[in-house]
Amino acid sequence: MFQLRPEGRPANVIVVVEGRLVRVPAGASAAAAILAAGLHSIRETSVKGSARAPYCMMGVCHDCLADIDGVANQRSCMIEARAGMQIRCQNRGRRLNPAPQSS
Amino acid sequence: MERYDAIVIGGGLVGSAIGYGLARAGLTTALLDEGDVAFRASRGNFGLVWVQSKGEGAPHYQRWTRGSVDQWVPLAAELADKTGIAVGYRRAGGVHLCLGDEEFDQRRQRMERMRREAGNFGFEYRMLDQREVADLLPGTGPAVTGASWTPYDGHANPLRLLRALHRGFVDHGGGYIPNAQVVDAVPAPGEFRLVTAAGELRASKVVLAAGLGNAGLAPLFGLNAPVRPQRGQILVTERAQQLMPIPTTTVRQTEEGGMMLGDSQEDVGFDTSQKPAVMQAIARRAVLSFPWLRELQIVRAWAALRVMPPDGLPIYDQSQRFPGAFTVNCHSGVTLAGAHANVLAPMIAAGTLDPWLDLFSGKRFDVSAAA
Asked: Which residues 123-152 of B have a C-beta within 8 angstroms of A?
């Protein structure tokens, strides 16, 4: 769906998007890597589970939320892609384990 | 010049609920909305439909609030049916968490006073000990010594409520007029002329529901509405799986999964700025209540101004000098939406407030009357 512009900076940063190795230029966002990976969606909405993918690319719409290096609900468009970064789908709301108090 | 049966000044939750009730009763009604220069408490509130802390020393306010949550059920159903907008009202009870023994003791005494004041009307509550709270809510912290619980409390999505009331109002033939700040009024009994930024309008009834703006508007109509701003700040977290079965006064989980943290109260005039020290105090109490909240990111925060009468109770009045002019003031536009749409609006449509509402008259602030 999306292709890197051939005249752009060299795509020498390799990140992992849902298990796929993706190359993007230095300075690209994690959301750009998600688009470059060709995924149709990166998250499911919290209430209805509808599929969503990066949209506004400027931190407003929250449709690019992803699990990045194990941290849930990250706006991938606001985070720079780093070598070895693990980007995974954010499905529904964040899972938590509210451990009962021990006393 | 446009002529209406009634003009409601104020397009927030209070004005919209009254306007909805008037239009539904068949009155040709205009709803004047000042615009985005207004303080708009209805866009900044917490979304509780709350009973348990209302009306200590004023049992009529407890009764009025209880009556309102009873009206919330049919109102929410009617709005969903007519407008297709689900306002997300959930009434499954609610708790006020107590941190420390002193808070628990004070809360227990307060709840017992309210039960006694309620008399035959009744006031069902339970004080829950630490273990009972831990059974009811997920992962409460060791600082939580207990809680008060009542079955009357609940919560809703206040932004959807506002949208549904506006939609319902327009569907009933009401005229919503934005950017219509009232700049002058020429009152006469049963015949009011308003000069607004959107032109001149006339009506046989006027309802002042302009929130903090009522303080300045009321004297033009021979009324008294000495409301003052009280700032509240709110933090909202990222969306999480559904964990909270019921809301608390300081922490609630929205239908979408975000956790709302709030309940600060500051007397700082018309200042809507956010203060880190207050945000910190809100977050600290929330994390003491539910330590697992520490994991969640804050994604949004804001400050807004509550509309606060001097004694915290609503002010409802019809002008003696200019009959047909009414004023409606309260800090609980969400909770009281049921009573405003289904009880108060029909009285205004009929032209007379029930005598027992005299307890809410603004005359109680009249120094000469009190002396």
From this structure: 134, 138-142
